[in-house]
Amino acid sequence: MKFWTIPTVMTWTRIVAIPLIVGIFYINIAPEKANLIATVMFVVFAATDWLDGYLARKLNQTSAFGAFLDPVADKFLVCASLLVLVHLARIDVFVALIIIGREIAISALREWMALIGATKSVAVHMLGKVKTVVQMVAIPFLLYDSVLFGMIDTNLWGTWLIWLSAILTVWSMIYYLQKAIPEIRARAK
Prior knowledge:
Elements (H helix, E strand, L loop, with lengths): L5 H18 L7 H28 L5 H24 L5 H23 L10 H19 L2 E2 L3 E2 H35 L1
Antiparallel strand pairs: 1-2
Helix pairs in contact: 1-2, 1-3, 2-3, 2-5, 3-4, 3-5, 4-6, 5-6
């Protein structure tokens, strides 16, 4: 059974991490310490995204369930972190709405395209991967919210990167919708 493989358990840890990352801001510790702990947790759990995929291929433990759960865990982790950042007034709610809205829209589009047997037209593209990398750098910068190594203003860099991520988010959504339009038109007749 491929339900409890090492990669799948690692994916589940990303989901379990969400209340931990959110909860760190609600316990009675210094804000700087909460920022550091949340940042480290986010980076560690986000790194499991790459590692679980690598291990699934290396150990021949790929599964349909793992392929389903992996992007769900990523989206939960990103969306929860964005909501925390909105709550902490570190990002504009408009940015969070763009990113979260796109994730919902593209997930629904992919589900529908799978239903009609046209998944290839909305397969993951390099643009989506770049968007994800930019998000995964911006979020820990914004969680940390301080000066790193005495010279990197993580709030400033995180803000620029999260806005770049929002732009890439819209761009990638347009790309996926353009790829899906022929199938959508064919089914609308």
